[in-house]
UniProtKB/TrEMBL annotation:
InterPro entries assigned: Ribosomal_L11_MeTrfase_PrmA, Ribosomal_PrmA_MeTrfase, SAM-dependent_MTases_sf
Any GO BP annotation: methylation
KW Methyltransferase (keyword) present: yes
Keyword S-adenosyl-L-methionine among record annotations: yes
PANTHER family linked: ELECTRON TRANSFER FLAVOPROTEIN BETA SUBUNIT LYSINE METHYLTRANSFERASE
Family statement drawn from the similarity comment of this UniProt entry: Belongs to the methyltransferase superfamily. PrmA family.
Keywords linked to the UniProt accession: Cytoplasm, Methyltransferase, Ribonucleoprotein, Ribosomal protein, S-adenosyl-L-methionine, Transferase
Gene: 11415611
Official protein name in the record: ETFB lysine methyltransferase
HAMAP family in alphabetical order: Methyltr_PrmA (MF_00735)
A Pfam family that the UniProt record links to this protein: PrmA
A Gene Ontology cellular-component term: ribosome
Organism: Medicago truncatula
MF (Gene Ontology): protein-lysine N-methyltransferase activity
């Protein structure tokens, strides 16, 4: 899926949890390189940004845009707006109160763009955004007998394990290669009764899937209040209640969430670095983290410390060419390391070394 001649690493200023958001398909015409903000009105709560960039850098730029404020990113390989065969157009959506130029500048800087791609901003209607999101999300077969199905669709196979989903603004629909890789890992490793930590839960898809596969309890954490709200709604769509899932908003350095993001009714606890323990389990049988390279590297000790000895740990959100960095960082903590790949993306997994002693981390 991603084509990149060389690794483009993100700066350490990124939030420690990747802001997972929904990727949608859309088409816009770009007539100039102007970045002037359009007139905002009460009926246009979103801004659409059309960015021209090289195909080699499209996916890594899309991830950076999501990390710095975009609520969705669309990369259309067949976009007729592109002006050369090596160019592709990215459409990203932002809330109207976002400082667009600053967010995009941070995204460009984080991946080392020396020459800033040209882009255009325009306002869009909320109804258009919702319709576009729904039209782009169709049932996805992950493997035989396992489907991810949008709320507004009928499951193609009613006898299958169907994960019903309304991603809203949160990433995680089963369409992205890393989500598929993580779902397949969970499908293979869960035998029943496990306690799961979903580190960077997004739409909640991985936590929900783990419970459908037979896990006893799941905890999902994210830095984004909209993601936590989406995950709660998706848990309800799948008839999963608070007796089986806990979702927490936590803060990270430079997190794009704030205490003002908290909404009573779906966010439990304070927006702090701490993952609160509400069960008798402070260690998990499976820890899954589908985020980004730098957060995985920077928070290795915290991720490992939450896993029991012998627990399965899955690490994704990385390019195939970045696998060696993850293995170098995590090999002291893991045994039986395996790598699965799909569309130039990868998932690294292994079991926590039984003899390993990692200091407990209460602050994330």
């Amino acid at each position: 899926m991603r084509i990149s001649p060389s690794p483009l690493s993100f700066s350490s200023s990124l939030p420690f949890l990747f802001k997972h958001h929904h990727k949608v398909s859309s088409h816009h015409h770009c007539s100039s390189s102007s970045a002037a903000l359009p007139h905002k009105s009460s009926s246009t709560p979103y801004l659409s940004v059309l960015i021209h960039c090289s195909k080699d850098n499209a996916d890594v730029l899309g991830d950076a845009l999501l990390c710095f404020g975009a609520t969705s990113v669309s990369i259309d390989q067949n976009d007729h707006v592109a002006q050369t065969i090596d160019e592709i157009c990215i459409t990203s959506i932002y809330p109207e109160d976002e400082d667009i130029n600053l967010s995009i500048s941070h995204a460009f800087d984080s991946i080392g763009f020396k020459e800033k791609p040209r882009y255009e901003i325009k306002a869009i209607e909320e109804e258009d955004w919702i319709k576009r999101s729904q039209e782009s999300f169709h049932p996805v077969e992950i493997t035989k007998g396992l489907w991810v199905v949008p709320e507004w669709s009928t499951p193609p196979d009613v006898q299958a394990t169907n994960i019903m989903l309304n991603p809203g603004h949160a990433f995680g629909t089963g369409e992205h290669a890393t989500t598929k890789l993580c779902l397949l890992l969970l499908h293979d490793c869960i035998t029943g009764g496990e306690y799961i930590l979903d580190y960077g839960t997004g739409s909640g898809i991985l936590a929900i899937a783990a419970l459908k596969f037979g896990a006893a309890f799941a905890v999902g954490v994210d830095v984004d209040a909209q993601a936590i709200a989406s995950a709660y709604q998706n848990a309800a769509l799948n008839n999963i209640g608070p007796d089986r899932i806990q979702l927490q908003l936590i803060a990270g350095e430079n997190s794009l969430s704030s205490k003002d993001d908290q909404t009573s009714g779906f966010v439990e606890g304070e927006n702090t670095h701490e993952i609160q323990t509400i069960t008798d389990k402070d260690k998990y049988d499976v820890v899954i983290a589908n985020i980004l390279l730098n957060p995985l590297l920077d928070n290795a000790d915290q991720i490992i410390s939450r896993a029991k000895p012998g627990a399965v740990i899955g690490l994704s959100g990385i390019l195939s060419e970045q696998v060696h960095q993850i293995i170098n960082k995590y090999s002291p903590f893991l045994e039986g390391i395996e790598v699965s790949k799909l569309d130039d993306w990868a998932c690294v997994s292994g079991r926590k070394t039984s003899s390993l002693v990692v200091p407990s981390q209460s602050q994330w």
